[in-house]
Amino acid sequence: MAPLPSKLAYVPFVSVENMMRLVHHIGIEKVLTDLADQIEADFRRWPLFDKTPRVASHSDVGVIELMPTSDGETYGFKYVNGHPKNMAEGLQTVTAFGLLADVNSGYPKLLSEMTLLTALRTAATSAMAARHLAPKGARTMAMIGNGAQSEFQCLAFKAVCGIDSVRLYDIDPAATERCARNLAGSGLTVVKCRSSQEAIEGAQIITTCTADKQYATILTDNMVGSGVHINAIGGDCPGKTELHRDILLRSRIFVEYPPQTRIEGEIQQLDPDHAVTELWQVIAGDVAGRADDRQITLFDSVGFAIEDFSALRYVAQAIAGTPFFTRLDMIADPDDPRDLFGMFQRAADSVAA
């Protein structure tokens, strides 16, 4: 008879269903606030982490990436794709899953869906950055690009930054209608706009989140006045931008990890030595953030592995003592570590029986 798996063989797994149940159990705004705090805490210890640009496999239709990091005690990675053409085929543009492992043993200790979790952590990171960079008292955000990320972004800025009004625009009016419908009852004042120019009127924060895999100009230089904060989260690949180059030249630019952002972010339009500020330095108190009320601040966000690590750590803590995960028999763990074949062979007896 094959022996039962040991406790070490089981890895907690958070499915899409359980992720949704967990977030509803805690409350989405609470989750977004908690994630923002967790990500900020890890940014404060940024120098401890292994850092590398994501490992990308590009094709004509999209990209598949691995995003690894470690703080020396826990290792984490995320698998994620980006396929803009998927939307027209009824598929998600982005899907993801992630894993945490114990550095000491190498054994996995969490496996989780990350399609939903990536949307949550991206929104939480945006709002966390704005907490340090946006003008004081900002209450209105323009949300340009009303795809799968948009509602999460709006709710994160409400929960973390106190935004109470959002102005929506998308080239597809149906996307704007859906976003407005989903935000009904959220406590936000929602204004549906007919152009990006109309959307940014009166907004102190401008979030751009479009998915077309090409150079684009979502915002032109004359559209952006002084004193705003721009949260540029679309793009994220070579050859994909959203902002006119002149906006970048007028802005103080904050990034996650320059070697990655210079390849994938808005700053791929600029000279390789153009000055940028790493966001972690602001959070750690080493460098000042916004200098004055007239300054344009730009968070050129492409997403970085440490943010996913933070989100996975949060989930690992949040599921403890809850029913919102299952245990997967993932690790072969024989009683005698040298007798893997013996464990395998004994399983034949149970099959024959």
From TrEMBL:
InterPro entries: NAD(P)-bd_dom_sf (IPR036291), ODC_Mu_crystall (IPR003462), ODC_N (IPR023401). It holds the Pfam family OCD_Mu_crystall. It comes from the Bacteria. SUPFAM superfamilies: NAD(P)-binding Rossmann-fold domains. This is Ornithine cyclodeaminase.
